[in-house]
């Protein structure tokens, strides 16, 4: 039986957010040290908007941590994206509670309401969610995917698409949040979001 999988396209947030980095694979960070990293916006991420995703199933957390671990391995090793290449040595991404909240909220929303996209049915986008979660840095974008059953598979899927691969490898990005939620009675069995941010304002692309 063919397993359904989906990457979101287009990865960019169209004209409204053209000044910001592209979204990759339609889903949106976590740390190489796991979800307990200290962060200046820890309190913001514990705000009422994030309450439903603070206590997360340990199995889901393990999936999120594994995605972060794999992403940081790729950043350290370097990678050939479909149309560009990145040398080894990119700094690891650090998990930030507010970005993790935004990612979890969207993954759960997609799994609950049976949709896949950068915008929810009300038109709220990744950058809106990061703001509502209290993120205090510079939002950079989001990767989405649905259907991929394991952390290794979803990261491989992202690496196979140029814009998503570039989002994972961006040198200016240093913060992330990862959200995983299972689907029950909906189109896909697995929903993934990774959000990206930066502690410093990135230089504009030439």
From TrEMBL:
Keyword terms: Signal
SUPFAM superfamilies the record matches: PR-1-like (SSF55797)
Cleaved signal peptide residues: 1-26
Domain SCP: 68-196
Transmembrane stretches, start-end: none
Gene3D superfamilies named among the record's database cross-references: CAP
A Pfam family matched in the record: CAP
Protein name: SCP domain-containing protein
